[in-house]
Amino acid sequence: MLSTVDELNEPLQWPEDGITRIPYRLYSDPEIYALEQQRIFRGPVWNFLCLEIDIPNAGDFKTSTVGEVPVIVTRDENGDVHAMVNRCVHKGALVCLKEKGNAKLLTCIYHSWSFDLEGRLKGVAFRNGLKGKGGLPKDFDASQHRLEPLRVEVFCGLVFGTFSDATPTVESYLGKPMSKFLRRNLGRTLKPLGMHSQIIHNNWKLYGENVRDSYHATLLHTFYTTFKINRLDMDGGIVLAEDKWHSISYAKRATLEEAPEYKAEKIHSVQYDANLAGPKLLDSWPEFEDGITHSIQAIFPNLAIQFTLNSLCVRFFVPRGVEKTELFWFYVGYEDDDEEKTAMRVMQGNLTGASGLVSLEDGCINEFVQRGTRGSAEEMGLAEMGGRDVESSDHSRATETAIRGFWTGYRKIMDIP
Amino acid sequence: MSTRTDIEDFIAAYAHGIDDGALDDWPGYFTEDGIYQIITRETFEAGLPLGIMLCEGRGMMADRIKAMQTANIYEAHTYCHLLGRSQIDAGSGGVFQARTNFNVVRTMQDGGSQMFAIGKYLDVIEMQDDRPLFKERRVVLESRRVDILLVYPL
User: Fold this and answer.
1) Which of A150, A190, A224, A285 has the fewest CB atoms inside 10 Å of its own CB, making it the most exposed?
2) What residues of chain B lie within 8 A of the CB of A365, using their CB?
3) Which of A64, A100, A224, A355 to mutate to test the interface with B (most CBs of B within 10 A)?
4) Residue A160 lies in a domain
5) Residues of chain A contacting residue B150, judged by C-beta atoms under 8 Å apart
6) HSE-up of residue A96 (Cα within 13 Å, Cβ side)
7) Residue A143: which domain range?
8) Within a domain: residue A171?
9) How much is the average pLDDT of A38-46?
10) What is the spatial distance between Cα B132 and Cα A340, in angstroms, rounded to a whole number?
11) What's the pLDDT tens digit per position in B28-53?
């Protein structure tokens, strides 16, 4: 099993120009993908597992995945949340087949071995054999066999899990600005509104860059620009976490001062001049006093929280192979939302997701990079917008600083010289 | 001709219109305040409200079409709808309920045709001047997963 970059068949070194250059090989090399599973997803990161509201009651379980590893998240009789690898200790079969359910014991269907909600082995079929013959050896110690556990922490309604003892608390992992903003958005009881997913035909890191790419958002996504939901000439900025892994991009809609550059550059996205025949689509209310009306918070490795107008969505992008990613959209509101607020959040659901008026392009744009870079593993991409440093950007989002932040974190955790 | 035949023809014409790319005609299949929603089976059966696409009224439908024709960026593709036999129940006041299974095959630029969307239409159909119109068309997808993106209505 690969565990360091030195073990790759093809040596890997970061380009001389540093973090402003991104080797295309990182999107397509199966060995690097395998290494990521070890160093990142089984490494010192907090992986998003599910929402706490997915498992509200004792006995509830939900299956999820950490990188490629299938996991089960449970809530026990005491209300505590646990996570474990969905792999029977006996033959390695999946223990939970259903995506969601409620159970007192988790029972593998292959040979009926059963586990409690913490993953401890509680029952073995025919343990003592039949009619005094067969069965497990007398000295078989069930306490030595349990579903491989993950350390779990619930933060702002998000259930996180880690395989590594080296991961600090979620709050330290995120850092102060990230924790504070997460509390702003998710620090109240949530209620589910709907879920779907999208298969995008690209490496998972391309989506990781995409959600951090404030530069593309108003160029590619015409709808944002035309309806003045998100533009670079609004007051806004990028906040990077102390360790650069995570970031927030935000904009304040009320501060728009139309910049001549949008028209002068004949950008595709301002060519679409429209009035809505169904203006109810954009009905919204100011949710926060800070004036921020659009934000995307990216959390390393594969989570993003979107708050566009009143549309609150947890986006979780799961690697399903080197060139395949499943992007989950978990739409939520707050438990105390009245009918009118819920209706507005539901209507604004049209903005994002697989059919999102502002975001559907992301379903294909990353694939276009995947296809465009085929056969060019030795070439590299550029990320110099906004400079070459990796710092927060208070006044401009015409920058790729959050992308440089992602690769800074990636290079460090992968230990690429 | 019976009402049943009229409704069957109407449901078929809707699908063929989209397959032929006549998307400007799409809102005209609905009543002025008609509702169109695409939602996953999982979300629908959980009784949750937020699906994948939602239009309330012909205006929003026209906005969708305008956006996909002039604003949204995606690889051009075509649909071919295959419909099952409709189950049609007469309600009261000239309103009918219909349920029809569908299978939509999508053909991309590389020439590949693939099953793209499978599910059922749950329709509320109103007769206006002897012509059927959708008062409500709920498109319930069997799968929670959409391949790449979903831009043309189903």
Assistant:
1) A285
2) 73
3) A355
4) no
5) 354-355, 360
6) 30
7) 47-155
8) no
9) 97
10) 31
11) 999 999 999 999 999 999 999 999 99
As given in the structure block, the two tokens for residue A227 are 């309806």
Query: Which CA distances in Å does A144 have to A109, A379, B82?
Result: 21, 50, 55
**What tokens were used for B102?**
């569908």
> Residue A382's pLDDT is what?
96
Query: Token pair of A383, please?
Result: 């990320």
Q: Domains in chain B, please, with CATH?
A: 3-141 (3.10.450.50)
Q: What is the pTM of this model?
A: 0.95
User: Which of B39, B72, B110 to substitute to test the interface with A, most A CBs within 10 Å?
Assistant: B72
Distance CA A60, CA A106 (A): 11
Query: Is A36 part of any domain?
Result: no
Does B50 contact A365 at a Cβ distance shorter than 8 Å? Answer: no
Q: Residue A135 maps to which CATH number?
A: 2.102.10.10
Residues A143 and A212 in one domain: no
One DSSP character per residue, A240-277 reads E-TTSS-EEEEEEGGG----HHHHHTT-HHHH-----S
For residue range A337-382, what is the model confidence (pLDDT) as tens digits? 999 999 999 999 999 999 999 889 999 999 999 999 999 999 999 9
Closest by Cβ to B56, choosing from A280, A355, A361: A280
Yes or no, beta carbons of A346 and B59 under 8 Å apart: no
| Chain segment A316-335, per-residue pLDDT in tens | 999 999 999 999 999 999 99
